Amino acid sequence: MDNNRENIVVIEPSGIVFEGLASSISKKDHNLLFYRLNDIFELEVFRFARETSVVIVNPSLLQNRTNEFAKIKKQFPEIHWIGIVYCYFENSVLRKLDDFFGISDDIDTIVRKIRRVNRGNSGKDCSGEELTEREEDVLKLLAEGMSNKEIGDKLNISVHTVNSHRKNIMEKTGIRSVSGLTIYAVSKGIIALD
């Protein structure tokens, strides 16, 4: 076992999803070692379970099994749980996890979430992470009421890039609404009240 590498278990029935996720993340962070399990109960017999820092789980495997999941979490309190979401899930299921990401999220966002959760900071409390200068620029224009296209045109970036910045801003602040982001920007001195 390499002491510099962190074990990440992916509990996902789809081999394609696992391979794509593990391969993509490994290209960004070589210190993560991936293992695949098909069910949460396989963790009990997985030989590196006690040396695993993060489990990425398909939330569909937790639906209607919340009591069993609670027992597994109690058995492995040192493990942080992240959901990989690619369809609608009840909030009651997602709240049982430390964090979650969407299947269409970019790899940098996913790696940041893994690192943040692994440091003990779930996505529910991310206020310690600073916004980049470009994210502050996007936030200022959002607070002015501009659309993504208008922001892209003003900053000479694509709408896709604007969306990525917005997603990062929301992750770092934990705030989802434009009005909430505006209040955040005022409170942090990013924009001034006129």
Which descriptors apply to this entry?
alpha/beta; Rossmann fold; Arc Repressor Mutant, subunit A; five-stranded parallel beta sheet; 5 strands
Kindly describe this structure.
The structure is a single chain. With 194 residues, the protein is α/β, with parallel strands linked by helices. It has two domains: 6-118, Rossmann fold (3-Layer(aba) Sandwich), CATH 3.40.50; 133-187, Arc Repressor Mutant, subunit A (Orthogonal Bundle). The protein is 43% helix and 14% strand. Strands 2-1-3-4-5 form a five-stranded parallel beta sheet, with helices on one face. Strand 1, helix 1 and strand 2 (32-37) form a beta-alpha-beta unit. Helix 5 (133-143) crosses helix 7, helix 5 (133-143) packs across helix 8 (178-187) and helix 6 (148-155) crosses helix 7 (159-173). The radius of gyration is 18 Å and the shape is elongated. The termini are far apart. Mean pLDDT is 86; it is low at 121-127.
